[in-house]
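Please check this:
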Amino acid sequence: MRRLFPVTDQTSAPADRGDREWSLDELADAYAYPPFGAEGHWLRANMVATLDGAAQHDGRSQPISGETDMRIFGTLRALADVVVVGAETVRQEGYRPARAREAFAARRKAAGQGPAPAVAVVSARLDLDFSLPLFTTPLVPTLLVTGAAAPADRVAAAAAAGVEVVLAGEGAGADPVRVVRELADRGLRRQLTEGGPRLLGQFVAADALDELCLTVSPTLVAGGAQRISGGPPVAVPHRLAPASVLEEAGFLFTSYRRI
């Protein structure tokens, strides 16, 4: 692993530093949340895309990922208060509860965080299996985020299963800006969304995203795979500034933040 941007002593590293695997502490330092004030919050997204713009292969992101990408994936989770994910991604990726990791225990304790991040599932139809481990055996209770007009029978089913329902919109679906605010009001201020593309597109369209951590995979897949974000277009493109670029084995691990 080597740092390409910003330029530091790790940029033109000698072989004994540039070619070695970074420790989890080094990765956590590299991806630390920026200061955002006592009453603030920060929403970052973590996505992977191929050189030709695909966010998935055969409907999943794992085939275009790699070992270091997964270590960064785990590090970003370990730094977050809450992981925000869409219902379709939960179904496709077989989401499980976030787990406590000893390597990050001291860091989380010092930051006043619990043993693991909560998972917040954003859904309009609430078409989810509440008997899955994500809902039945999480270390930190999973939240279900929806709108006030969500199907009443599914809201009742979630409540019967002991799942807390968070209302973050007046319609059937959740409003992206209110999702961020409702979670922050619960003390979940370091926020991480792992998609999918439709949910990320909603955050982008609402200008609610503060940071994009994008892994550029040195692969080509062609076909009609989704981009990392979809949904309604923005009237004017949102400009982000590069915060960090790391490289290993042809993968680029980038971070861009709002200006």
